[in-house]
Amino acid sequence: MNLNKILLSIFLIAPTIDVCRTVSTKLPAIYYGNQGWAMREIEYISSWIGKRPIVILLFTDWCNTSMNNLFNYQLNNIWNNRSIPVITWELFGCGGSSQSGIMQLVRNNTYDTYINQFGDRLKLWLAGNDGVLGSNDDRRAYLRLGMISIPKLVTCNLCLSR
Predict the structure, then answer these.
(1) Where are the alpha helices (DSSP H) in 50-111?
(2) How many CB atoms lie within 10 A of CB 63?
(3) Which of 92, 105, 131, 154 is a Cys-bridge partner for 110, taking CB atoms 3.0 to 4.6 Å apart?
(4) 160 occurs within a structural domain
(5) Residue 151 pLDDT
(6) Which residues constitute the signal peptide according to the record (predicted)?
């Protein structure tokens, strides 16, 4: 094996050494279909395989009802299960309906109010029970953006940094 391959192997493996103990006791990720609603199913799976999921994947659309459910129930259920939510934010309306020309509507600022509300609610949820980012009760989540153009992300004021 040449030196470059050895160095590449070390480079790829070294960052995982510190997390090996944590990962060995937890299931890396799970999508189970109920997206933060039926957490007993997660308990059953966890007891069956002897590991808890580190992250739980869920999907949400651009509907006010879905946004309320996400922040009032689903994220809390997943977090209280000692897992990290991975939110896949899909560019669909209520009930998964699609709208012709949706990307153009986003670029034309039609959805700015909704995007900003979502960002504000996510920032508040991440701040934990005290509502202050940077304190000991902060939460964590991963946000996967589906079908959103990069220029729109820069201009939508969705700033979640501290």
Answers:
(1) 64-69, 75-80, 102-107
(2) 17
(3) 105
(4) no
(5) 45
(6) 1-22
Range 23-27 contact pairs with CB under 8 angstroms and sequence separation of 24 or more: 23/54, 25/51, 25/52, 26/51, 26/52, 26/53, 26/54, 27/51, 27/52, 27/53, 27/54
Please count the structural domains in the chain: 1
Q: For 57-102, how does the pLDDT look when each residue is reduced to its tens digit (9 = 90+)? A: 999 988 899 999 999 999 999 999 899 999 998 887 777 777 777 7
Which tokens in the block code for residue 6? 């050895």
pLDDT per residue as tens, the chain (162 positions): 444 444 344 444 444 444 445 555 666 777 777 778 888 888 888 888 888 888 989 999 888 999 999 999 999 999 998 999 999 988 877 777 777 777 888 889 988 999 999 999 999 999 999 999 999 999 999 998 876 444 444 434 444 443
> Within a 10 A sphere around the Cβ of 87, how many other Cβ atoms?
22
Q: Where is 60: in which H helix or E strand?
A: strand 52-60
In a domain, 161, yes or no: no
Q: Is residue 67 part of a domain?
A: yes
Q: How many CB atoms lie within 10 A of CB 137?
A: 10
Q: How far is CA 92 from CA 54, 87, 101, 155, in A?
A: 27, 14, 12, 20
